[in-house]
């Protein structure tokens, strides 16, 4: 949390310096086109990679496993997508690191290993009584019910 405030000050300064340098190097219009292009590429990558991660998480859940890595990858995808939409080259670079599968998986493993997405004092567990989750197409419905009008029926009889 202590790093958050300096990051909000440092990142815009880095972005402005990079935008000015790139603008001097390739020109103003190509720089603007490049910034918009990275945002479009980011949204496209986010859609594709997000669906892929969701499918892998679903597959792990069907096998009765906790999709921890996929959940962290989902967080990294969201962070990367936001970074690519924010105008600037530094945030685009960081966003691409979060969206490219190879670097995203490495970042996810590192985050899990270091406990970055875990709140202090939080713990949890996962247990399954079956080897896999049941499919939605089975005819088993599990639930409880109570008739609200049962007292009324008994009085009338």
UniProtKB/TrEMBL annotation:
Record's keyword terms, sorted: Membrane, Transmembrane, Transmembrane helix
Membrane-spanning segments: 26-46, 75-102
GO CC terms in record: membrane
Protein name in the entry: Membrane protein FxsA
